[in-house]
Amino acid sequence: MAEIQELKNHIRSVRDTQKITNAMYFISSTKLRRARWELDTTRPFFDALKTEIKRVFRTVDKIESVYFFPEDGRPLPEGDAACLVITADKGLAGDYNSKVIQEALRLQDEEKPLRLYVVGEVGRHFFSEHGIKYEESFHYSDQRPTLQLAREICAHLLPPFREEKLRRIFIVYTDLKNSLTQVVRSERLLPFHHDRFITPDYEQPVTEPIEFVPSAEAVVDAVVPCYLVGYIYSALIDSYCSEQNARMLSMQAANENAEQLLQDLALQYNRARQERITREITEVSAGARAQRQRREEEERI
């Protein structure tokens, strides 16, 4: 009887857990659709900014800007490197967070010294637990990335770069290729190579002169920060989509494991119940047989 009660309690516990994983699956799928919609509605503006930067390089042979590698072979100014690490605020997302942290640690071994700027509670907790110092941490608004957060990050990263205290700025985030494939990316945000804005062969070259006021360098210096905000915002949204997708897959796997566990527990419960019924029948039969034998002995006496 005790074994049957334990199996009943175990089945009830698994079903309650399955309700939670089902709810988390649907919540993550809703957040994923909303985040993709926000990214699709804002990306055209920042793509247009990149196009305008291309137009500048189509019409100007040489531009001197702090945001670009020197073209005359001069070395980069000395200073530290910085890395923006984008993790999640919660777990239960498979290996989503661990892969990002591993890539950040790999980059830290290559770029020394490296200042860490962390997005997400999981990353902050990991670096704090392992005694790894980070410069700044950023928090989501309502567990969701926003343009304001991207602007806040740029406000922390760009001033030391302009002052040449930082020589390179990297970003580590997760790119959602499709519903089954997620890739951790490590990209250099600054400085740019001019090749990044080279006009493809299939695009029409600019033939008419363009006037820049007050100068082409001033236009680039004004546009690039906006472009960086868009790039960071896209990375935040992409990572957020990857997190929700990873959580969906984890919850789906948990549901499938729960179904399999319920089948095994149901089989064990039926066997235990059948054994109890068989034992009770055997005891009743044995008692009836003993009563019959006693009556027969009394009749003979």
Task: Give a verbal description of the structure.
There is one protein chain. This protein has 301 residues and is α/β, with parallel strands linked by helices. It folds into 2 domains: 2-18 and 254-300; 23-250, Pyruvate Kinase, Chain: A, domain 1 (3-Layer(aba) Sandwich). The protein contains 5 helices and 5 strands; from the N terminus they run αβαβαβαββα. It has helices at residues 2-59, 96-110, 121-129, 147-162, 216-300, and strands at 80-86, 114-119, 136-138, 166-176, 182-190. Strands 3-2-1-4-5 form a 5-stranded mixed sheet, sandwiched between helices. Helix 3 links the parallel strand 2 and strand 3 (136-138). The two termini are 41 Å apart.
SSE diagram, text form:
Elements: H1 2-59, E1 80-86, H2 96-110, E2 114-119, H3 121-129, E3 136-138, H4 147-162, E4 166-176, E5 182-190, H5 216-300
